[in-house]
Amino acid sequence: MSSNAYSGSGDDGGTPYTAGVAVVVCVLFVLALVRLARYILGPSSEAQQQLAQGRGDGEPRAEVAIEVRSSEPVVCAYRRGDGWREATCPVCLSDFADGEIVRVLLTCMHYFHAACVGEWLRRNTTCPVCRAAPPPPSPASSPVKSAFTA
């Protein structure tokens, strides 16, 4: 008879753990979606304000990055906790500071201080680290780019 008393309670023992695991999985899924949305949507409004204001000393920035096609570098703010692979600029060998503006080459995902890689990109079309070449521009992006070059 004692075996009948325990036969129904064997399934109830794992329920609190199953619910806890489900909650943790849901939270991790939501966090992953938020990070993916951040990555896809680009820099935050705070980073865009820093770009618009320049260095904060009243002088406008010398260079402005306009995203025209997928081969153009993306400008965003470096945040140490956001999972960046490297903490040092490969051009000047200085560490990136939180909130500092970096340029990311979408072809190879290497990133640099905006000022460090700017001169290189004016003279070359490849990445200074791996020499990866960007894909050719699409016909739709060429007229837009020519409108911004004087």
TrEMBL record:
InterPro entries: Znf_RING, Znf_RING/FYVE/PHD
GO biological process, one term: protein ubiquitination
Domain of life according to the entry: Eukaryota
Domain RING-type: 89-131
SUPFAM superfamilies, per database record: RING/U-box (SSF57850)
Keyword Transcription regulation: no
Key words of the record: Membrane, Metal-binding, Transmembrane, Transmembrane helix, Zinc, Zinc-finger
MF term (GO), any: zinc ion binding
Signal peptide limits: none
Spans through the membrane: 20-41
A family per Pfam: zf-RING_2
CDD domains per UniProt: RING-H2_EL5-like
Protein name: RING-type domain-containing protein
Organism this protein belongs to: Hordeum vulgare subsp. vulgare
